[in-house]
Amino acid sequence: MRTIGISTGGGDCPGLNAVIRAVVKAAIVNHGWRVLGIEDSFDGLIWPEKTRELKLDDVSGLLSRGGTILGTTNRGNPFKYKLTADGKTQDLDYSDQVIRNADALGLNGLIVAGGDGTMRICHELARKGLKLVGVPKTIDNDLAGTEITLGFDTALHTAMEAIDRIHSSAESHHRVMMVELMGREAGWIALEAGLSSGADVILIPEIPFKLEKIRDAVLAREEAGKRFTIVAVAEGISLPNELLAPELQASEVRPAALASSSSSSVAKNATVVLREAIEGCTGKETRVTVLGHTQRGGAPSPYDRVLSTRFGVAAVDLVARNEFGKMVCVQQGQISNVDIGVAAGQPRRVDPQCELVRVARSTGVCFGD
Ligand code: F6P
Hints:
Blueprint: E1 3-8, H1 16-31, E2 34-38, H2 43-46, E3 51-53, E4 81-85, E5 88-92, H3 95-104, E6 110-114, H4 116-127, E7 132-136, H5 152-173, E8 176-181, H6 188-196, E9 201-203, H7 211-223, E10 229-234, H8 246-249, H9 263-282, E11 286-290, H10 302-320, E12 326-331, E13 334-339, H11 340-343, H12 355-362
Parallel strand pairs: 1-2, 1-6, 6-7, 7-12, 8-10, 8-11, 9-10
Antiparallel strand pairs: 2-3, 4-5, 12-13
The structure holds 6-O-phosphono-beta-D-fructofuranose.
6-O-phosphono-beta-D-fructofuranose binds next to helix 9.
């Protein structure tokens, strides 16, 4: 009888529990295997007391639950594990320990649901001999090698609903309402949530913008009798030079203040600066709503439940065929798989010439360019 492991890494998202459920069901029902749940990403292989057997009863009722019953972390790279002792922080390499513990636990395969950071770790561990299969998850939808990641669709629903609600308030108060969406360096959530909720201005990191274009769009709406404007802003936008502090303007490099590891705080700064600028140049009251981690919570959408189940079953199928070092994916609408090295590459960003951007432009959306 084989033993396989399942873990979840990186930021949580809706659909992770549905993957765990699918993996456990497919492994037990189809193959009669034993499944170990590895807690908190790779931490559970550094400290194997953080593993537990998952039986069918353990995954009952999981399909609709947000989050992950196994826990996760986006700070637990076993190659560079940060440990603080006596006020000093050190990067420690636990990767050999991960391999040894996977052996000691008798793992014949490990399925890891994660985003690009997790897939990079998987790629390195696979090169060290760990038998891994990846499952793509992130609300950001920016993982290379797949057309869609699980969690994205649910995040879009959450963002769209929020913007719909903000719409009525914007209209009543004749305001400019900015809604900041997650997505790190990629604008997928802002683009699609903006499109689906009828945002008038969409700002994404892939399309540099100018303040005057936003001002013109707001004032053109005013002239047409539309006294409010909805602006969907991706958290990863870079401010144009005119809005940067003078000491940052000459820099070719993305300013340090805009390149911190937590893009949420980055974006907050950029969005707040932009709010003041929009209010200043349009004379219209302007408010910001930061949706933040609400986009990562809640029950998965029907699409994400089905996708997570398809991904989980496909990952178990790869293990059954001893095809390791791969990530399951969607290509041309079909479940497929790619080398995990592809997923570990550069994140997938919005092509400014893509059909969605063209469609948005054709319906009058301003990208600020
Ligand atoms: O990658 C998912 C994501 O939610 C990003 O959209 C966001 O920038 C980041 O994680 C936030 O990370 P944390 O949970 O560490 O604040």
